[in-house]
Amino acid sequence: MSRRLSRPSSAASHRSSGSSAHDSEFKVECKAAYLSVYDDLKDVISSEYDLSAVLQQSGRNPTRKTLAKYWTDETDYLTFDDFVNICRREHATTTDDLMKAFRKIDINGDGYISLDELFRMLTTRGEKMTRDEVQRMIDEVDENRDGKLDYGERILYYSEFCNMLMSTTDECKKMSMKMMEKKERKKKRPSNTPRRGDDENIHGSRTSLRSNASVKHDMPRPSPRVKKDKVRTPVGSRSAKVSEPSNLRDWTHTSSKGCFFIDADEGGQIISHQYTLDLAEDTNVFITMQPNRIGDAGFTDDGPVDTAVYVLREGSSSNKVVTFTEQRDSKGRYCVRCDLSAGRYKLVPFTTGCRLYERSAGRETKEVKLIKQDKEDKIVLSKTFKKALEDIFDMADLDGNGLLSREDFNWYNIRTSGEEVADDEWDVVEGNIELERGEITKTGFIHLNQMEAEDNDGDTDDLWVTLTSMGFNKSLVLNQACPFKLDVYTEDCRDASLEVVGLEAQAVMLEDAVCETVTAKGEVSKVKGMKDLSVYTYIGDARATVVVENQSYSKIRIQLDCSKSKNVVSNQRDLNHTLTVPSNTTVVGHHLIPRDEKAEWIVRCQENILR
Asked: 89-93 contacts: CB < 8 A, separation 24 or more?
């Protein structure tokens, strides 16, 4: 039995001092706040981070001291009833509360809060903000447009700031009520409509989207903290925590293929296709990501290459992590199910690269022949080369319709030559090879390579550039690439658009996103003798990540020794890896996955500072 909230014996009988009507309204507000974060009242709060988020949805602004009262070292989870009792004890933030707090900030007592006064408070206490974040927040609340908010000398009326915070709280409550009503309507639908939460583990497995009303709390909810030495059961033996909606056939479906490549020109970084998802309406979404079997790429005897996709909300200043495909379903797909509001999102594919790097290090046999000459001394392509070209065609066919559109061919050309297809080049394609409905057929694609071989008089250098760019070694084994398939299903939005928009190094897009989710969801430990240095270890269903956060004023060199782990493989060349962490940065040290998914695996990480 999990340990729950320790509370006084009188808590169960504690009641609001108001009327029964007021108490009923209070319970409805608590329910709405809870259901804005969770799918069902049976779902449980599984971390202090979650507790803070759901309390904020109820109009409360808990301090660390307040959270510590209800989430102790002995707490494993809290129920909805626990949450209601906490809300009874901790009243919602009021205008009077804010006014008292602002009077403490108003150092000179002139009745106004200067930017400097507000900056000093918001950047030194609690969840620290940058000066730019403080300025943007102030710019949003000058309702009377009095022109007194010039940077450096501007002043902020108490009332303006209070109105901004209280209106945000009111909007948050309205959104919570709206989400609750929507979920309750879905429960009243016919029985073939899935009721999220019914088939999930009661100890906190859930996939709904956290409200993004708070600047600091808009990423996925953390899973329960785990010990770094925790034994993880075989991946295939665990029951799926997320399941496919039973009425998925009725949802709008859009999909795309893509590929991870190990790019030698980028120092061995992994690059992949990037996507945007446009939603015309608020909707429940189900997103899946999985390796796509082309040849023998993406799969080994120990298991598939791990795949995931991070969902980022596009914004004017930065992209906020909304969620990611953290769990596997019974079909082996990495999935997430959540609510997304209307708007544009970036979908950034991710892999640790552990098995992909192992595949790329495999031995090569002798270089195969790409061309030969027939009896009439004409240049023809070898059977092995033709088979590789067929695989490349399937990899380049991003929309999966069996043809290469100009857009598909353009992404292929960017990968193999670094350039887009010019109009005159496309004219040559249209005039010389087989097309169907204006798109390149597989036969036409092979003929295009035949033409290139003939134009080069049998010189195969350019052909090898194409092959190696697409992940093939000299033996024509696809060992430096992993094709994948991305599927997006939307329940309430009939106008959803998924578009390929880039082919970039994943480190550029995802380093911050991965660090953000790991520091939010992982177990933290302080490095002995280094008060400003923390190591976070996150262990998910089939991946572990170790992140180092350096808040000091100087760079450090740290050794992350995972060599005592069992049945794991790292994205680093050595389980005992040393890295340099610049001042005030957070970096990934190790990604670890089970070497054999059919066996238990253990993650142990010992950190040592190198002077």
From this structure: 89/14, 90/55, 90/60, 90/62, 90/66, 91/60, 92/58, 92/59, 92/60, 92/169, 93/59, 93/60, 93/61, 93/165, 93/169
In the three-class reduction of DSSP (H, G, I as helix; E, B as strand; rest coil), residue 114 is classed as strand
**Helices and strands per DSSP (H, E), number in the chain:** 15, 26
Domain pair 1-197 / 371-478, same fold = yes
DSSP bridge pairs for 435:
440
The pLDDT assigned to 19 comes to: 57
Fold (CATH) for 1-197: Recoverin; domain 1 (1.10.238)
The partner residues of 523 in beta bridges, in order of sequence, read 537
The pLDDT score that the predictor gives to residue 227 is 41
The predicted model scores a pTM of 0.63
**Residue ranges covered by each domain of the chain:** 1-197, 231-360+482-511, 371-478, 514-610
Token output for 152? 């450096």
CA gap 299, 592 in Å, rounded: 17
- Please state at what angle helix 48-57 crosses helix 20-35, rounded to 10 degrees: 130
Please name which of 294, 285, 289, 284 lies closest in space to residue 328, comparing C-alpha atoms: 289
DSSP state letter for 256: E
Q: Whole-number mean pLDDT of the chain? A: 78
Angle (CA) 455-263-267 rounded to 5° is 125
What is the per-residue pLDDT across 125-134, written as a single tens digit (0 to 9) for each?
Answer: 544 556 666 6
- Condensed to tens digits (0 to 9), the pLDDT of residues 325-351 reads 888 887 888 999 999 999 999 999 999
Looking up tokens 């036409």, which residue turns up? 444
Average pLDDT for 526-549: 88
Residue 190 has pLDDT above 70, yes or no: no
* pLDDT at site 3: 38
Average pLDDT of the segment spanning 202-209? 31
| Beta carbons within 10 angstroms of residue 609's beta carbon | 13
Contacts of 100 (CB under 8 A, 6+ apart): none
Buried b (16+ CB within 10 A) or exposed e, 6-20: eeeeeeeeeeeeeee
Residues 6+ apart with CB under 8 A from 286: 244, 245, 248, 251, 335, 336, 337, 488, 489, 491
Fold held by 371-478: Recoverin; domain 1 (1.10.238)
Domain 514-610 matching CATH 2.60.40: the answer reads yes
User: Is 70 exceeded by the pLDDT of residue 67?
Assistant: yes
pLDDT-derived band at 124, boundaries 50, 70, 90: low
Alpha-carbon distance values, 29 to 23, 33, 92, 559 (Å): 10, 6, 11, 49
CATH number of 231-360+482-511: 2.60.120.380
